[in-house]
Amino acid sequence: MEIERKFLIKELPEGYLNYPFRQIEQGYLCTEPVVRVRREDSEYYLTYKSFGLLAREEYNLPLTRDSYDHLIAKADGNVLTKKRYLIPVEGDEGLTIELDVFEGKFQGLILAEVEFESVKEANEFVPPAWFGEDVTMSGEYQNSRLSGL
After folding, report:
1. Given CA atoms 127, 23, 75, 146 in this order, what sign does their dihedral have?
2. Is the C-alpha dihedral spanning 82, 86, 92, 93 positive or negative?
3. 78-109 CB burial, b ≥16 within 10 A, e <16
4. Which CATH number belongs to the domain containing residue 111 in this structure?
5. Beta carbons within 10 angstroms of residue 23's beta carbon
6. Domain region containing 45
7. What is the pTM of this model?
8. What pLDDT was estimated at residue 51?
9. Any residues with CB less than 8 A from the CB of 57 and at least 6 apart, and which?
10. Mind giving me the DSSP string for the chain?
11. Could you say which of 19, 28, 44, 48 is catalytic?
């Protein structure tokens, strides 16, 4: 189960470049349900996500590079590229902010996601002051929607 909240970020936080990041490329084969292929640095995945905004089922299956290359060529819509910075949530051990700085077609778009163990924990989360609008429930900034399918 994936339980996460998503926020629009207007200005990058000070010092974000000091945190580790992952280079991500992903494309969508289908959006109802979501079937995605992703390259994250040198790892490759096929992901299934059920319908939902705050909470939904998610399954990741490892792929070889050859399998990924074959499937990404079949992706419809926009292939998304971004750097994902991993920033610990201050004062809340165990929570990590995944700060997505988009590249390519969506350069300038910045989103932050935080994953939780429970819906209760997600609803009680108080975001840092540098977070912007909570766009979790709008669905407008889901990566599958950005793909244009």
Report:
1. positive
2. positive
3. bbbbbebbebeeeeeeebebbbbbbbeebeeb
4. 2.40.320.10
5. 13
6. 2-146
7. 0.94
8. 87
9. 1, 2, 48, 49, 50
10. -EEEEEEE-SSPPTTGGGS-EEEEEEEEEEETTEEEEEEETTEEEEEEE-S-SSEE-EEEEEE-HHHHHHHHTT-EEEEEEEEEEEEEPTT-TT-EEEEEEE-GGGTT-EEEEEE-SSHHHHHH----TT---B-TTT-TT-HHHHTT-
11. 28
**Cα–Cα dist 34/145, whole Å:** 10
Q: How many CB atoms lie within 10 A of CB 58?
A: 17
Total number of domains in the chain: 1
Mean pLDDT for each 10-residue chunk of the chain (149 residues)?
A: 96 96 97 95 97 92 98 96 96 89 97 96 95 94 87
Please give the pLDDT value at position 41. 98
Please give the Cα distance from 55 to 60 (Å, whole number).
Answer: 16
Active-site annotation holds for 28: yes
For residue 149, what pLDDT is reported? Answer: 53
What pLDDT score was predicted for residue 125? Answer: 94
